[in-house]
Amino acid sequence: MSQESNDRVRILIVDDHAVVRQGLITFLELQDEIEVVGEASNGKEAIQKVQELEPDVVLMDLVMPVMDGLTAIKQIKQLRPSTEVIALTSFADDEKVFTAIRSGATGYLLKDVQPNDLVKAVLAADRGEVQLHPEVAKLLMHEVVAPVKEVDSLDELTEREREVLGLLGLGMSNKEIAYKISVSEKTVKAHVSSILNKLNLPGRTHAALYASKRGLVKN
Questions:
Q1: 151 within a domain of the structure (yes/no)
Q2: Of 107, 142, 177, which residue sits at a domain end?
Q3: What is the model's pTM?
């Protein structure tokens, strides 16, 4: 049964190859839970489209003309922290992986990902769950993401934001946090965006590490 448009995950597809974009659009538009709201051929165009269309999730190629995906991810997360970005690329080298994550990407997938796994990743990203290629996940287990210039004080956070930050440290998704503290997923998403902005953190991975370091994680 198809969901109403407002309940569907709004996707922006960014890739410099029209045939790749069209392939993704054709497949994703068959999914009841997903609505493709636009496409872009480079990072600069992607930033403009994000501001115009306010998508929930961006599928972002990394190697593109005019502006590369890594630069675009960072600017998108600064302009609209609530939009999740999944790097969808042919490259899995360490430098691109860590730069994408430091820039705020929620996920890092290769273009040979199985179609059904891509759908699962998009829906999971919208719920605030990090989606990584298995090899990338393995790297993160052994090499903590390079430090960012984070704010050292929790004074800027409200009590509810501190609670949400602690739950992020437990690896909870937005849906799980919403259930735990009896609020809507939309409210949780707003809290997460506020936390990232106040603490100068680029993404949920950093927020989880921050929470752990500050002793906010309560099992």
A1: no
A2: 142
A3: 0.65
